[in-house]
Amino acid sequence: MFIDAQALIRATADFFIQSGRQAIAERDRFLVALSGGSTPKALYSVLTSREYAPQLDWMKVHFLFGDERAVPPTHSDSNFALANTMLFTPLCIPSLQIHRMRGEDPPEIAAIQYEETLRKLTGTTPGPWPALDLVLLGMGDDGHTASLFPGTPSVAEQTRWVVPGLSPQGTRLRVTLTLGVINHASVILFLVTGPNKAKVVQRVIEGPSSDPTPYPAALVRPETGRLLWYLDRAAASELTGATQDLSS
Ligand code: 6PG
């Protein structure tokens, strides 16, 4: 838990830079999947700042997406559009390092195409799952993450890497990485802020809820990697003391 949003975002940026440097030192590239939604905006602002931008060799970073809304890449709801405006353009990231989900295509087509993109990029053909270096995730107050929504088929997917998603509100049609891809990452980092997320944070982190439909975020359990929860005080407010300490 971090005192305030600024401390939280700086810590996330520090972790991003440190993970990137390690991956580049070990494998000469950094494969990172960005989350959608609004919370990443502050992170993008810090990463492109004069203080942080010089700290990483951005020419070695490959940007992927955890999910996308079924809208064109210029649409205000597009996760790509946000990252392009607030991160890729300010850092002059070459288009060859940006691997976006084609929200303008039918979700099934976009999902198949993106799995091919991931297989080519990770060289995992054949192979069960890719090993991304860092997967950034947000969480909705219904416990969804990426575009894995409670009670939808995408949550139960066992073999595919990318599938269509279905949101109960907003832009309904989505494309999303599956739990298999997420859970095989080296590091999974949840970035969650705000009082409206406190109840679901408590349910997801502190164990089984009485609700029949599991929270997709509770199914994020790394096979061999690390799981980190970066929370502000408001989002962590319903956690018991012991758990609160764990996340700092
Ligand atoms: C999306 C996201 C989604 C998001 C959560 C939290 O495309 O909507 O990937 O999973 O991370 O809904 O969204 P906020 O950060 O806006 O609260």
What does this protein structure show overall?
32% of the residues lie in helices and 16% in strands. It has helices at 5-27, 40-47, 79-88, 107-122, 153-156, 179-183, 198-205, 241-246, and strands at residues 30-34, 61-65, 67-69, 134-137, 162-166, 173-177, 187-192, 226-231. Helix 1 crosses helix 2 and helix 2 (40-47) runs parallel beside helix 3 (79-88). The model has no long low-confidence stretch (mean pLDDT 93). It is of the alpha/beta class. It is globular and about 45 Å long. The protein has a five-stranded parallel beta sheet, with helices on one face. The chain has a three-stranded antiparallel beta sheet with strand order 3-6-5. The structure holds 6-phosphogluconic acid. 6-phosphogluconic acid binds at residues 35-39, 66-67, 79, 138-140, 144-147.
Rg (C-alpha, Å): 17 Å
* Number of helices, counting only DSSP H or I runs of 4 residues or more: 8
Low-confidence stretches: none
Mean pLDDT: 93
What gross morphology would you assign? globular
What's the oligomerization state?
A: single chain
Structural class: alpha/beta
The run of helices and strands is HEHEEHHEHEEHEHEH
Bound molecules: 6-phosphogluconic acid
Biggest β-sheet, characterized?
5 strands, parallel
Strand content: 15-25%
Q: How far from one another are the termini? A: 5 Å
State the helical fraction: 25-40%
